[in-house]
Amino acid sequence: MLPDALCFQSPAPLIDIGANLTHESFQKDLDDVLERAAQANLTAMVLTGTDRASIDASAEMTRRDTPVALYSTAGLHPHHAGDFDDSLRHFIEESLTHPGVVAVGECGLDYHRDFSSPADQRRAFEAHLEMAARTRKPLFLHERDAGSDMLDMLRQWRDDIGPAVVHCFTGDKQTLYGYLDLDLYIGQTGWLCDERRGQHLRELVVDIPDHRLMIETDCPYLLPRNLPAKLKGRRHEPALLPWIAREIALCRGVGEADIARSTTANAQRFFGISAAT
Ligand SMILES: [Zn+2]
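Structure for Hydrolase TatD, as requested:
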């Protein structure tokens, strides 16, 4: 259940490009979560595959008949990069042949927390870049506190890979401009709804061209801090995406419907999906 004050229908269809719906917190009420997302005017979502279990479970979910069209990604999160080996590479490659699996990732570099060594992270990321180049699938990238290395590696691969999105971008201006110079897409979450740590993003989001911006919840993480009602359990969910779209619209000085239309068109083009509108 969402409190009434949080039920908000987007004036135009939205696509959540990053939802971790295989997270255990969604196990009990997934059908309700999907129903609420449909009521909020979400027409599609891309489920994030971050390890063997979530790649499998996400791909499986895309097969179901659901009120919102589901797609998924297949990759290894940099936190788990130490586990990357040939067997996992084959598993990811095999998963990428599934019709519901639309991107390579999430993959990338995260130096914020040293769950895997930077050397392991670069090795695993390189393998994902190679898979994306070979399969021509778009890339779903994760980067935290590693902008410089990320840019270096992407520059080397730019001519070989297709479209790529830096999901949940939280970096600085220089890094953002570096990504835009490489013609990357940028994913924005509820991070920028946080007046304390998201202030720089509220200013930077204005600099992202219309045709390069996509939006995501990254649920169950990153619950927006400015919601008009408290949420028991503080679990973020796709039905709350319209609040993020509204905040971005406010920062950019445009209407909510404009943000919905452009981000949805971008997601459809990027992932090659045709969500009903
Ligand atoms: Zn991520």
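Strands lie at 14-19, 42-47, 69-74, 101-110, 139-144, 164-167, 185-188, 213-215.
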